[in-house]
Specification:
23 strands; 18% strand; eight-stranded antiparallel β-sheet; seven-stranded mixed β-sheet; alpha/beta; 553 residues; 23% helix
Length: 553
Amino acid sequence: MGEQPVRVLVCGDVEGRLSCLFSRVQAIQKKTGQFDLLLCVGEFFGATPEAEAEWQQYKTGAKKAPIHTYILGAASQETVKNFPNSDGSELAENITYLGRRGVFTGASGLQLAYVSGQEALQEPAPAHCFTSKDLSALVTSLTSSSKFRGVDILLTSQWPQGVWHYGNNPELNTKSCGSSSIASLADKLKPRYHFAALEGAHYERLPYRNHVVLQENAQHVSRFIALAAVNNAAKRKYLYAFNIIPMKNMDPTELVKQPPDVTESPYRRSAKDKTETQKPPFNAADEEEPVHQFFFDLSRKQGGASRGHGRKRPSDGDGRGQDGHHQGQPKQPRRHPQPTGPCWFCLASPQVEKHLVVSIGTHCYLALAKGPLTPRHVLILPIGHYQSVVELSSEVVEEMEKYKSALRDFYKSKGERCVLFERNYRSQHLQLQVVPVPLNHCTTEDIKEAFMVQAQEQNMELMEIPQHTDLKQIAPPGIPYFYVELDSGEKLFYRIQKNFPLQFGREVLASEAVLNIPTRADWKECKQSREEEEESCKQLRDDFQPYDFAWDD
């Protein structure tokens, strides 16, 4: 019984439309079975005479809520009168006011944290507002335990400010949306689900992680969901149903599983992007190495100063370099586009796995693929932060073409042809995958047919585009797409609609028709130890060096 999921309904601003809400709930329960509880965020009561009359029917017992309903407190001065005190109480049969702020733990073990009202902008705080002391008390009550991992559900009326960073954008003006204090609260409490309202919008953000990859142990992901008002004219979603097994009853490995579309935390941004004056718990700007410093470090790791001095641009400040700085003058790092937050693939980022780097040019770099399909499977990546090929500047495109040409020559010497593909979908930094295929395995036409057939099987139509057509002409920036380039120069393109299989490129190349290694289609099944990766990368770096234009002869 301990692992039985709790069935939960969550609603946005009710604004006094109780009969409309409960009719909808009854219809849902009739169709799908009984839910355990209904949680209401935002403004529950209405300020009109009609809303007041409707509430009186429930308050007097003439009508009864069909489900245990838990609500937040007033979000405006007009509705404060409906709440007798700030401590929480039963307002009518099956309708309970949770209170100003606190923690509610159900019999199942489900832990729910909540904060009523809006952030106070003045002292003393109005009755419908919360203060920083309220939030501090809530955080302390939970995080003081050494066993604290997060809460199952967080209920707030206001949105957390900046929750859309690194994720999908909501359909509203975000300039004045949300509370920075609620954002800080969500960051500290790590809710598995966070619900809010008040903005009249429905928004389901992509899940975000609560740990820094490669620096912290894996933790559960968080999901933020904002709901619209009941019976709104635009017919935006105002009810959300889900099943949840309480965190305390879950197997830890199940709890920390990461979905494929997970993003960085929207709250772990650099200090200059924060509206709070206090230093955030994670400051990307403090941890980021300048680009030229990373080049210097890498040259030492790649075999000492003699190889480092072979670079076509200065890496350790020795003499006068191409950037025009004399010895003794402070060097300025090359200005590449920077991300607004953590990125696994920006070369200057602390998140990048530097031991996988094979070669560094002026605008691009080459890295061994994580969990490679074959030992010589590499990525071409821009040093600066670009999301896709169509966003690249001309000098980056030019150097990327040089890397393509060098790799074709390199693979040809090994009796291989190369296939390149890019997935501009659910990724924040361009990764051009380059996979070698032995000439004796199959022809270019076989590879092309494999892509076409598998696309058709998944109801996708790959379009062949003319050899010299610029991708920018058919895929404007911001449009998600999948793109393949064959060694013949032929190009295949698919404009992604939705639910694109993230491993599609690998699945085709791993199939029986091409490499015949179907068990390696998922990169997670091909992971190597750090030592194995370092050895593989060293071997590839040495093999590729004769073709690497980034080193002097």
